[in-house]
Here is the input.
Amino acid sequence: MRRWPRSFDQSVSLQVRQVRRLLQHAEEQVPFYRRAYREAGFSASQFASLEDMRKIPLTSREQRQALPEEELLASSAHRAKLIVKRTSGSSGRPLNVLRSRLELAVCQFVNWQMHKEIGTRMRDGRVSVALLRGQVKQRWHRRFGIFPMDWLDVRLPVQEIVTRLCETKPDILICPSSTAAWLANGMTPENRRVFRPRIVLTWGDTISEEMRNEIREAFQAKVVDFYGSHETRMIAVQCPETGLYHLFENMTAVEVLRDGEPAEEGQEGEVVVTPLWSYAMPIIRYRQGDIVKLGPKPCPCGASVRTLAGIQGRVLDMIPIPGGGEIHPYNLIRPVVSEMKWVRRFQFVQESPRALRLLLVPAERPSNEQVTSAVGALESRLSGQMEIRAELVEEIPVPPGGKYCPYLSLQRQESWRKSKRD
Here is the structure.
């Protein structure tokens, strides 16, 4: 499987064939899609170009959760032989995704392509900092001596994680961007001299320019972000030359919709995805719940793929401003980073439409004046329209999936509560 066809037109043509094949399979073998297409007056035989995607009904996580599993599985799939992956639940709504071993092998191959694209080597030492559940297997490293990977639990104290990184000195550090920024903040001058990975590979949550600079300075390493999900696996990886995100169009068909219509270059919109290699449990025109900015096509670096200019975060993460409008929580990061050098970790919790509670884990005890000054800087970012109350705490719990959430909106909290009730 080539990473890119020779031209952008070839890339589009290849994707049209893959989508048509998937649509025909879903129409013939999956009860949910057969019924949905019939109700929408759509048939897979009508699909001739990517413009025809808008004829296909959109699907959502809530919709899939409400259906019995047999409605979503292909009739040719053998349930007992499928691998069940449960989404992290960071949105508050975990979901089961079933794949065959062949589909997982394709996902792994694309993951290797991503690593090759950003400049990693098969024998590079890798350490992932994430939430650990049980023993992690290293089949490829044990069998062939390639792709070695170690894991550190994100629940460990920051200095213990940093000490272990200094001892093992991996070539590649892999973790959510907020975790990487947290580790960067915990690096002492001596740590920075000892541990210098070649690449810090971030994932899982939105990375701001402030966070990127902090991570790059602390580790003296190239910072590369990649974008994916449990439902789709790999979606995009950051271009080492331009900073744009290359879409993995041989893996996932990606739409960016603005008010239900395709977004133009430079516009923000909601991501809708169709994993092209999910045949056991097809996922077609699935509302990912993220906001992104559409980039140029093809990438100026010469890759014959479409690009994303930025990934703004989940729809649930936006902070509604009283009186209309909204702001992304990462716009509040600069005051935390610049005004609160004494903070080890933080989290915004929305308590009402007009109030935010700021949880702060201090590295050292701040003065009252420091806290007051920092809160004032944050309130000015919100034009005084929201009240911010700071609270010093010993620790912030790790959320479902181990992806630290810097901001808990009212919607996200209600979604989590509903998930627990269900």
User: Anything to note?
Assistant: The first strand starts at residue 83 and ends at 86.
